[in-house]
Structures are given as structure tokens and as C-alpha cells.
Amino acid sequence: xxxxxxxxxxxxxxxxxxxxxxxxxxxxxxxxxxxxxxxxxxxxxxxxxxxxxxxxxxxxxxxxxxxxxxxxxxxxxxxxxxxxxxxxxxxxxxxxxxxxxxxxxxxxxxxxxxxxxxxxxxxxxxxxxxxxxxxxxxxxxxxxxxxxxxxxxxxxxxxxxxxxxxxxxxxxxxxxxxxxxxxxxxxxxxxxxxxxxxxxxxxxxxxxxxxxxxxxxxxxxxxxxxxxxxxxxxxxxxxxxxxxxxxxxxxxxxxxxxxxxxxxxxxxxxxxxxxxxxxxxxxxxxxxxxxxxxxxxxx
Length: 299
Hints:
By secondary structure, this protein is an alpha/beta fold. It contains 8 helices and 18 strands. It has helices at residues 77-88, 104-113, 142-155, 171-180, 219-230, 246-255, 265-268, 272-286, and strands at residues 5-7, 10-12, 16-18, 40-42, 59-62, 65-68, 94-99, 121-125, 129-130, 136-137, 160-163, 185-188, 192-195, 197-198, 203-204, 210-214, 237-240, 259-262. It has an 8-stranded parallel beta sheet. The chain has a 4-stranded antiparallel beta sheet with strand order 5-6-16-13, with no helix packed on it. It is globular.
């Protein structure tokens, strides 16, 4: 029985990854999860300098999931290399570093710093506001997405995954722009913009007013978008959005994803990633699937 998958020449022991921002760099979770069992650990977003993030409150529970407006708080690339990458080097799992920035130059600085590090792939978070273009996210304009993808691809030593925003008119169009610019893979979906109001305090639940919604409620949207993207491009897709079980993960694979990432459920049950790995193997045995790649895009 083969659970191995390949993305841009990188082989993963299974298709299960962590979604950026929900797993740190695995340090906290290593008490619960054997990181060696995972296909990859995808780190929290890292920028060229430390980011303090947004004011609090910045997390709110909602029906079927959660809203977050953390604002990509991170310690910056120097601390990240010394602390997070040295920690992950002890484990037999692939390492994918999520990169964020406020200008193309910010991204390029981080990408270049990571060039000689033990990192298997880079995931580029294009949901960051582009400060030079009126704070519209790089991932919400296909020309901006094409430009940043092309420029990062020219500098990156590792294969790059462009993490697409669902807050667009056509996910297929965005996927095509990333592929045309040279992306090695795409990951989707990032969070859906949402809002919650506290009717007793008569104010927004988040200091930022809006936040990114994640959790089981967004899964049908995510599956549909992965399916559409898979039919628009030929590069591999990492699917995510509300995955809580092996059944959910398999749905994404059948929609066309090569790998999947578990996000919000890590907060609800820190054992979720391991349960998904085991559950996929059980499904393959029960349904006589010899190779996980057989069922990719089968619908």
C-alpha cells in the first residue's frame, strides 16, 4: 500500500500536512503528535522583520469554525532560522516554510535568506496586504499574483507553492496566473473573510472588525474551489479548508488535490493530523486502494 505523493520533485511519505498558522513550527504540538508521521510540517508565516500582529481580541468562535485576525504575528526570519528550523531539523518530515510580506521586496528578502537552509519547499502567502498598492492583497489581483510569483520563482532555490485566497471572483483564473508565472504548486483555500458582532457589548468581536474564517463550515466551498483549480491547471494542488477527518481529506484528494493540510481542527483536537494519517491508511485497506494517487481527481 503506497501513501507517498510527489510535488515538484519532493517526495512526501503521505499527503497529510499542517496548515500554516495553526501548528506553529510543531514545537507545541510535538508533545501530542509524532511529527515523523506527517508528510510535512508547514510553518507559521515568517517575514523579513518581526511583526507584532493585530490588537486583541483577535480570535472569535463562530458556528462551525472560528474567526482569526492574528495579523501574521511572527518573530522575523533571524529568530525563525535559529529556533524553528533547528527544531524541525530533528524530525524525519518535510519542511515547508510559509513566507509573508508587505511588498515584493519583503518576500524576496526572506526567500533569499532561506536559500541555503534545510527547507524542502516555500509556501507564499499572497493574502498579505500589498502596502504599495493600497493594501489590496497580492492574491486578489491576477496581475499582482503573476508578478510576485514570477519574481519569487526567479530567486527561490526551493520549489514554490502559491497559497491562493478564496476571496476572489474566479479561483480558476488565479490558479492559471500562478501556473503561468512558474509556480511549482498551489495551495488553497486560505481563510474566507468574515465578521462577528457581540450584540450585548454592541461592538465587533474582533478588534480588526473582520477576520479569516476557518473550520468545518468552509469545507464545501474549499472542495469546490480545489475541484475548479484542478481542472484549470496541471501543477499539483494542496487542498485545505475545514478538514476534520480522513474522510474529509479523501474528499479533497478525489476533487484533485495531491496533498491536504489540516488547519483549525488542530486547535479543537491536537491529535487530528495523526488521526487523518491513520484514517487514510484504514480507508485504503477497506476500499482496496493500493496507491493513494489512484483516487486523485477520480470524480
